[in-house]
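User: Sequence in, structure out. Go.
Assistant: Echoing your sequence, followed by the structure tokens.
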Amino acid sequence: MTVREIKEPIEKEMEEFELKFKTSMKSSVPLLDKITHYIVKRKGKQLRPMFVFLSAKVCGEMNESTYRAASLIELLHTATLVHDDVVDDSNERRGFFSVNALWKNKIAVLVGDFLLSRGLLLSVDNKDYQLLGLVSNAVREMSEGELLQIEKARKLDIDEAIYFDIIRKKTASLIASCCACGAASVTTDEKIVEQMRAFGEAVGIAFQIKDDLFDYGDGSDIGKPTGIDIKEKKMTLPLIYALNNASFFDKRKIINIVKNNNNDPRKVAEVIDFVIKSGGIQYAESRMTEYKNKALSLLGGFPDSASKNSLDGLVKYTTERKN
């Protein structure tokens, strides 16, 4: 399924969401309005609101609370992205200049804070305390996941269990909160909300493994690996598997390259070649499929509908995408 086909059952709702989301960012300060307008203009595929709306429709009838759930998630997520670009000293996001590149770090941090407060007030003003709890928990886990990854990158002492803990917190927690919030906006049944949360978590883990595979040339236009994760000393699943199955000599050699020669393109290519030959790609793909199937199995428990078909398509899209 294409993104357009996936959106069909919620097309009208997505259009309405655009307007509500813009309104939720409004400010009386002209500079803030200028920056938030720039942020809205360069939005991505909007997978998160899609997860919220489709999850809501699978579990019941959408309402105003569902729109607020999607806005809350987008506001808090956008705040974390603006702050991330400052932390990473990044000048670009999705091919556009980042907020900090155009308006400097101090303004970018304040804009992130503003977006965070707008999300909190949107929930508090409407007494959406359960939604606020779900999303705040996701933001806490995202921060913990990032910090855990930074800590482990210093020592490179990461095993598979720690890797899955990092991606569950860093990536999967947000998609899990999208699905849980969508469900919670239409039902008070805690079992259903938990089932959708578990579904979102499984999708998020599969999504991140797919992202890790791109570093080894998976689906890129020219089929060439990028090695960006290796340059940033990020220990991803293909590399962890390869190291776990390597001889003592090979393991020491590869860890030394990642630690000390991670900016040498020839050395990075050597690591990529080692991972490919060790079966790291196939192993990561098999684990990704395992989580994709877990997600589809959890979704299978809900009644058939156009929204359920789209959610099924969205799961497959996240694991089969080319970028």
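User: And one key feature?
Assistant: The beta strands are 92-93, 96-97.
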